[in-house]
């Protein structure tokens, strides 16, 4: 099984495309090459695949990256399933993971939520989607400053609060306060729970 994330940028027409698209490409290239593993298409939509145990952390990396730019947000549809056909372009590959993810993004556009997951197990979907709806109450309200800190923590889990303080030219206590406001410890626990539930599929 693999995980496929299909997403689109919210409010992209009100932002400097060159800035967010360059940053998104620089992030995605860490996880594979384009267009085999990821692709940005139709202006503000993107798709990429990853291991199932990494998918929550990958989602958060993208969410925090986009939220760290003023007035932008992102919709993320996570599909877990099989890859029956692997093309040289991810957007031409096929399987249940791709179908789940693509259909789910269309549902998200109409129901107003910013993240959802679809697997072939309804009970797992129910549990994880309740978790995602609750956690998104926080994620959707991250300030730019909070999103920046979270993104650094996700991309470099060995980074210290002292390093973060230097990077952002703020005090260590300010870093600590931002991480507490963002419930970072709870985010780490949620990632562990997510991985456990998906491993049961």
Question: What this model shows, in words?
Answer:
By secondary structure, the chain is of the alpha+beta class. It has a single domain (2-199), classed as Alpha-Beta Plaits (2-Layer Sandwich), CATH 3.30.70. The protein contains 8 helices and 5 strands; from the N terminus they run E-H-E-E-H-E-H-E-H-H-H-H-H. It has helices at residues 17-28, 55-67, 96-111, 122-139, 144-155, 161-168, 172-181, 184-199; strands at 2-10, 38-41, 45-50, 73-81, 115-118. A 5-stranded mixed beta sheet has the order 2-3-1-4-5, sandwiched between helices. The chain is globular, with a radius of gyration of 16 Å. The mean pLDDT is 93.
Key phrases:
201 residues, alpha+beta, Alpha-Beta Plaits, 5-stranded mixed beta sheet, 5 strands, globular
Computed Rg: 16 Å
CATH class: Alpha Beta
Indicate the CATH architecture.
Answer: 2-Layer Sandwich
CATH topology: Alpha-Beta Plaits
Structural class: alpha+beta
Number of strands: 5
Pfam families: SatD
Organism: Chryseobacterium elymi
GO molecular function, one term: DNA binding
InterPro entries: Lambda_DNA-bd_dom_sf (IPR010982), SatD (IPR032580)
Please write out the topology.
Blueprint: E1 2-10, H1 17-28, E2 38-41, E3 45-50, H2 55-67, E4 73-81, H3 96-111, E5 115-118, H4 122-139, H5 144-155, H6 161-168, H7 172-181, H8 184-199
Helix pairs in contact: 1-2, 2-5, 4-8, 5-7, 6-7
């Amino acid at each position: 099984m693999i995980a496929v994330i299909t997403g689109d940028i919210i409010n992209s027409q009100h932002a400097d495309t060159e800035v967010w698209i360059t940053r998104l490409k620089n992030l995605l290239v860490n996880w594979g090459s384009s267009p085999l593993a990821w692709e940005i298409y139709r202006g503000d939509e993107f798709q990429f695949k990853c291991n199932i145990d990494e998918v929550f952390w990958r989602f958060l990396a993208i969410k925090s990256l986009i939220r760290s730019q003023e007035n932008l947000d992102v919709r993320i549809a996570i599909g877990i399933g099989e890859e029956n056909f692997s093309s040289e372009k991810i957007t031409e590959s096929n399987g249940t993971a791709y179908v789940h993810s693509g259909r789910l993004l269309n549902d998200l556009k109409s129901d107003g939520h910013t993240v959802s997951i679809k697997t072939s197990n309804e009970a797992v979907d129910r549990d994880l989607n309740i978790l995602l709806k609750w956690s998104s109450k926080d994620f959707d309200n991250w300030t730019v400053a909070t999103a920046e800190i979270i993104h650094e923590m996700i991309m470099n889990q060995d980074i210290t609060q002292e390093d973060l303080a230097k990077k952002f030219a703020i005090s260590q206590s300010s870093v600590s306060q931002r991480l507490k406001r963002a419930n970072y410890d709870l985010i780490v626990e949620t990632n562990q729970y997510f991985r456990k539930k998906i491993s049961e599929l």
